[in-house]
Write a structure and sequence with these properties.
Length: 226
């Protein structure tokens, strides 16, 4: 089982960027399938590492084919690999993502990318009531050294029903609650990359623990899980 991202994977995507058409891809599909098999093996290692310290029950490696129906970009193939890992719901919340791409564009992502509208409202209500614990978790020195600052799309002023002058409106207006961590091509193809992923994913746990507590209880702290 592979624990290293081959330089050949990044080289293949660089070539695909210049030849993103069905004719070229069909000709080189055997090479792609071999590389894809290696990456799936790598993602399986990530999954097994996660299982040592978290309860994850889903692994998904995204297909190379792009959905171009609603996109101006009509190139048929992605020029990256993406793999996601889901925590066991409804007891646990949050997820992990590993993005492998050339030109120093690889990254890890964690958090809540497209939260369900009910979950988003619950998070906002919690932050409206008291955002101090949230800020403590994401503002700790150790956490910031690993994951930096909170990212994600947001509404322009305030969500419907929330006061735009609220002192924590910078958090309340978020539509996504994610963190990302970027890596160079050299780092990604290093034998230590698999360990770096696991260290980073371990470091996100205080955030996941907090958000899980919020999303599995009501505003009075009563469990919503049977």
């Amino acid at each position: 089982m592979s624990s290293i991202i081959s330089k050949d994977i990044l080289s293949f995507f660089k070539k695909l960027e210049k030849n993103n058409n069905r004719e070229w891809f069909t000709e080189h599909k055997p090479t792609f399938k071999a590389l894809e098999s290696d990456v799936k093996s790598f993602y399986q290692r990530v999954f097994e590492n996660l299982q040592k310290h978290d309860d994850v029950d889903q692994i998904k490696v995204f297909r190379i084919y792009r959905d171009v129906r609603f996109s101006k970009n009509k190139t048929p193939y992605k020029t990256h690999f993406g793999g996601s890992f889901g925590r066991t719901k409804p007891r646990l919340r949050g997820g992990y993502y590993v993005h492998i791409a050339p030109n120093n564009e690889s990254f890890l992502a964690t958090g809540f990318w497209q939260p369900h509208k009910d979950d988003l409202l619950r998070i906002r209500k919690e932050l409206e009531l008291d955002a101090s614990e949230f800020r403590t978790v994401i503002g700790s020195k150790k956490f910031k050294e690993s994951w930096g600052t909170l990212e994600g799309d947001e509404v322009k002023t305030s969500p419907k029903g929330f006061d735009k002058s609220h002192p924590d409106i910078d958090l309340i207006k978020k539509k996504q609650f994610i963190f990302t961590k970027k890596y160079s091509d050299k780092e990604v193809t290093s034998p230590n990359f698999i360990n770096e992923i696991d260290i980073a994913f371990r470091a996100i746990r205080p955030y996941f623990d907090y958000m899980t507590e919020v999303l599995t209880t009501d505003l009075n702290g009563v469990s919503l899980i049977d």
